[in-house]
């Protein structure tokens, strides 16, 4: 017998590994080389800064990220990534000197991308 108000749910998806980064930044949106679409925002208890939710815009890519300001230090942005990208990066992060980029990562039209952004 089902209890009142409970819905039948399918098997739970296994949780993807979550990675958390803290970055000192004045701006809330940090360019990490991927394109994101914001799909939600939630107030955070005891913080004037909301938590923002994003998903990767590439088709069938399961990655999501949460971005919020640290309660202890509002100068820090806490970004949590969940999942693994199923595709190469779309653009180089700004201020990247190319260090740490491996040859299997997308080296495509970032010149075009930088023109679009400027």
TrEMBL record:
Subcellular locations according to the entry: Nucleus
Composition bias, Polar residues: 93-105
Keyword tags: DNA-binding, Nucleus, Transcription, Transcription regulation
Chief location: nucleus
Stretches for region Disordered: 1-20, 80-118
Any one of the GO CC terms: nucleus
UniProt keyword DNA-binding, yes or no: yes
Domain WRKY intervals: 25-90
InterPro entries the UniProt entry points to: WRKY_dom, WRKY_dom_sf, WRKY_plant
GO terms, molecular function: DNA-binding transcription factor activity; sequence-specific DNA binding
Name of the protein this chain belongs to: WRKY transcription factor 6
Organism: Physcomitrium patens (Spreading-leaved earth moss)
High-level lineage: Eukaryota, Viridiplantae, Streptophyta, Embryophyta, Bryophyta
Gene that encodes the chain: WRKY6
